[in-house]
Amino acid sequence: MAQEVLSQNEIDALLSALSSGEMDANQLKQEEKDKKVRVYDFKRALRFSKDQIRSISRIHENFARLLTTYFSAQLRTYVNISVASVDQIPYEEFIRSIPTITILNIYSVAPLDGRIIFEFNPNIAYAMYDRMLGGKGNSVNKIENLTEIETKLMSQLFEKALDNLQEAWSSVVDIDPMLEEFEVNPQFLQLVSPNETVVVVSLNTTIGESSGMINICIPHVVLEPIIPKLSVHYWMQTENTKERKPEEYENIAKGLEDAVLDMKVLLGKSSISINELLNLNKNDVIHLDQSIDKPLQLQVDNESMFLVQPGKNRQKLAVQIVEEIKGGN
């Protein structure tokens, strides 16, 4: 339990109050014995620890980076997406916090139970749609009057972004997200009970000159099977105990066996001046630092690996390994 450290002035004031009778020592002891009551709101039950919320935030920071790259390539305009907040709130509070008319994508995330919601602010959704059709990315808030073509094009754009969600969560669980529904009115959407705890990840989003929020709603029932994997202890344990499978070592060995290496034999070296190099003529002799009765060096990718002696094999120049050079040169 954390203890509060008093300053010297506070200690003096406390002793003075006890001496003068302003404060009763027995009363202090009684207050210490009394149980402290903390107010708890059952409608806002906190079912995730701070550690688990940080893990979810880290996953979606990676997702935001992937999504930025994806939308930049698809829309060919400036895109910036970043995590604004990660909170756990009742589902009812999430529904009340989003616009009455908005863009809602409902995804299943097999093999996890339940579904998650992506809420795209109308400004963002129409800016994306305008860019897809060759516009400047202007936003027109007419979500309640979406045509079938507009609905289809938007759905396809959001559905293709699911690969990024799958990659972001791959460090914790392999999911297969799939678009189940496309809705514009949150009142028609009832995934879980109103008091069910959900994690809401809010992403600050800028598309060209338009900006808004992308909210991701993840019910507790979806995350419940993988809650232990959201702790830092699990992440550190996984990283420290991860071992390669025997077949992985075999694949690495086979890959190394097929690698091509550059091998050459060094006959010797010599140093001459630029003037001597420019005046070299036919039949001139260059003296090397290599003795004819000593083995030559065989180099592999410019690293001296073996001592060899020259010769012939089947009428071709060859070398025979005499000794390995320990540690290379």
UniProtKB/TrEMBL annotation:
Cell location: Bacterial flagellum basal body; Cell membrane
UniProt-listed SUPFAM superfamilies: CheC-like (SSF103039), Surface presentation of antigens (SPOA) (SSF101801)
NCBIfam families (UniProt xref): fliM_switch
Lineage summary: Bacteria, Bacillati, Bacillota, Bacilli, Bacillales
This protein's encoding gene: fliM
Pfam families noted in UniProt: FliM, FliMN_C
Protein name: Flagellar motor switch protein FliM
Highest taxon listed in the record's lineage: Bacteria
Protein family (similarity comment): Belongs to the FliM family.
Keywords from the UniProt entry: Bacterial flagellum, Cell membrane, Cell projection, Chemotaxis, Cilium, Flagellar rotation, Flagellum, Membrane
Species annotation: Aquibacillus rhizosphaerae
Domain Flagellar motor switch protein FliN-like C-terminal: 256-325
Keyword check for Cell membrane: yes
Membrane topology: Peripheral membrane protein
